[in-house]
Amino acid sequence: AVACGGSNSFLLTQEGEVFLFGSLRPPGGDPDHVRWLWGHGCRSAASRVARIAAGWRHCLLLTQEGAVFALGDDEYSQCAGRGAGDTAIPMPTGQAVAGVAAGACHSVAWDCAGAAFVWGHGGNGRLGLGSSQHCRSPTQVELGEAVSTAGCGSNFTIFVTRQGGSLWACGGNRYGQLGLGPDLTAREAPSQLDLPRDGEIVVGLSCGVNHALCLTRPRTPHGLGTERPVAWAWGCSASGQCGRAAGERRNLPPPERRPSPEPLVDFLGPS
């Protein structure tokens, strides 16, 4: 597996070792060399790393045992005071952690029961805790639905709940990156998007600095349908990062923002 941060890149091997390209403050980095960062030789790691989430100057490592470690800059407590990676971040749950995500300066984790926890920079309400205060330790987000995955942009967070049946977003919204329509007000508590459509579920989600992409596909009584997934994009689109939506002509400058999710016409299946 691979992950890209603000000024760094990470490679996760099948043996659960992690290698660093670029810089991470601390423990630093060298753009001319690949640096071994984590693995069997690290005495504090009880098991192999299963997933990596990369922020601007920090990263989260999720082990196969469901523990979360952090490395890097902790200026806004995005590493919960454990940026040296010598001890796991304490989680207020008795369940193993199932996934992690990292924004520029904030962090998210969710456990096997679907409870989501956030910490770090709280500006614009990106933590979804009802304020813009920073948070020094993992705190549960009240969503009322089980979280199955999440994604972080620079100053916003998107949660996927009900096994792909719902999307919720919070945080900065200057470019419409929350996908909530023309009201570009920041949200300090998670708000639900009008996506996925009836009969569909979200099967993929990724967040850029100020935009987001997701994939949806029909759900049938026997599981997922065989139709081609639909790609959706919203948020900052000034550089074309949101692709082309219906009504947007080729060879013309893209709109500055797309405040609502739109399907990408170049990837739609034949009608």
The residue fraction in helices comes out at under 10%
Shape: globular
Largest sheet report: 5 strands, antiparallel
Number of strands: 20
Give a description of the structure.
The chain is mostly beta strands and 271 residues long. The protein is 0% helix and 42% strand. It contains no helices and 20 strands. The strands form five sheets. Strands 16, 17, 18, 19 and 20 form a five-stranded antiparallel beta sheet that branches. A hairpin with a 4-residue loop joins β13 and β14 (166-171). It is globular. It starts with a strand and ends in an 8-residue tail after the last strand. The model has no long low-confidence stretch (mean pLDDT 91).
Offer a quick outline of the entry.
With 271 residues, the chain is an all-beta fold. The chain has strands at residues 2-4, 8-12, 18-22, 35-38, 49-54, 58-63, 68-72, 97-102, 106-111, 116-120, 135-140, 147-152, 156-161, 166-171, 187-192, 200-207, 211-220, 223-224, 230-236, 257-263.
